[in-house]
Structure formats: structure tokens, C-alpha cells
Amino acid sequence: MLPLVRHALVGSTITYLGLKKIVEPDISNSWALHYNHVAGRVGDICEALGKEMGETIPPLNAIVVNGQTKLPSYGVDHYLARFLGFSGPEIGRLSQEERDAYARQAIHSVFDYNGWPEVCRRLRLRVPIAGRKRVPGPGSRLPDPRGFSTGRESAAHKDLKIWAASNPEFFADYGTFGIGETEVTLSSGDRLDAYFEGGASRLAVEVKSVRSPHDEIERGVFQCVKYRSVLRAMQSVLGHAPNAQAVLVLDGPPPAGVSGLAATLTVNVFDVSDSFRAGG
Hints:
The protein is of the alpha/beta class. Helix content is 43%, strand content 11%.
């Protein structure tokens, strides 16, 4: 239990194999899959303790994931169902995409939960001290807000967002979309450069010109993180699977450092210069 709480406090998942190495460090030939039963026991404890405390404790076992998919096994689904308010048959009828979206939601609920120290105290476990998840790589930096663009929208920016909204086929990996919209306002008050909606899929597009200041382009990565979170929150409120995505579109290759930042924050960046200039 304690190793999983440590991971929760730093916002990090752990694989079944990683859990095995912690629980049985001297046994090398044990099947890692056996530890989904260990993880299930953790889920049982969370549910029982939640009833005792009079609150819902997120399923801590949701952060024990498959090394390839980075998601928990299907053994966690009945814990997800109870945590999210589904019946067993309802969660069984979800599409793979919907199920995975709810699994990711549960993982983030575990990370966001601020009651893990109290859980440890109730279980008479030593409360772990949350440390830093990883050491930043050389050159890691945050964009300087003083470098953000201000003032009226440029013609280049307007043309790029109109192009993005008019070319849904470019974003086919994210869903089946018709022509998108520009300047869509989210429930947070933020306005999207381009927005696509199709079936259960939602996609926000932020556009930047590579002629913009470097900090402004990096700001675009953070804007995508925000828009993705807000859209998923909106989906959750409406009872939809929180599977929204957000991407950054540039009219040229991303400047140095932008790709690394985007990878850290799991934001996809697209250079559409060839198609954009061709008018396609």
C-alpha cells in the first residue's frame, strides 16, 4: 500500500512488474500479472476505508498499469464502475476508447486526492514525504510571460486557424470530424482557435506562427494542456467519457526546445507548413 501512496503523491503510475520488484525484490521468476491480485486488495482497502471515513477514496490500484498500454488491467474495472457510479453491465458496454478514458480519469483522481496522508494514518502506516518526480533535464525552463504576444490578432494567425478548422481530415487520428469551428468558447471562458466535435470525440486546436516569439509558442503547449483539461471536465459534467484532446499547430518546424516541452506534457505538435502553403 505504502509504495502506491508514494507514487500517488508524486503523480506517477507504477507497472505490475515494478510493483513485483518492490514486493518481492529477491524473486525474479514470479509472474508480474499475479500482482493484479495485490492491486485488487488495495482497491478493497480503499473502498472499505472510504465507507469508514464517510467519503469516496479514489481506487489507488488504478495507478498500477500495464507497461505497454500505461493503463490498468481489466481487473480494475469493477472498482472503476463503483468509483464512477456505473453498474457492472454499463462499464462492460463501454467502447475501448471510453473505457480507457475513464481509466485515465481514475488515475488522475488518485493523483488529485489530498487525503492520502490521512489514509496512511488510519492504516497506521508511516506517512511518506512526497518528493520530486524526476530531475529536470538540462535546459528545462518555463516560458516567460513577458514574451507572450498581446494586441490584435495577426492576419497570419487568422488564416492558420481558419485553415485548421477547414481541414478535419488532417486530424483524422483524433476522430471522425466534419468542418470545425473557430473561436469556440469553453466553460472556463477560454476561446479555442479551432474546435472539432464528432461522435464521442472532441478536439481543441491551438495555432501559432513560427514567427511568434519563442515564449509565445511554448505558451501554446501550455494552452493545449489547459484546453484538454477543461474539455474533459465539460465531458465529465455531461456524463460523457473524458477523452478530449488538444493539439498545437504550427506553420513551420517547431523551434528548439518546443518539442521536448510538448513531449513532457504529452501534447502533439504538428508542422502543417506544406499543406497550409499549398492551400490544401
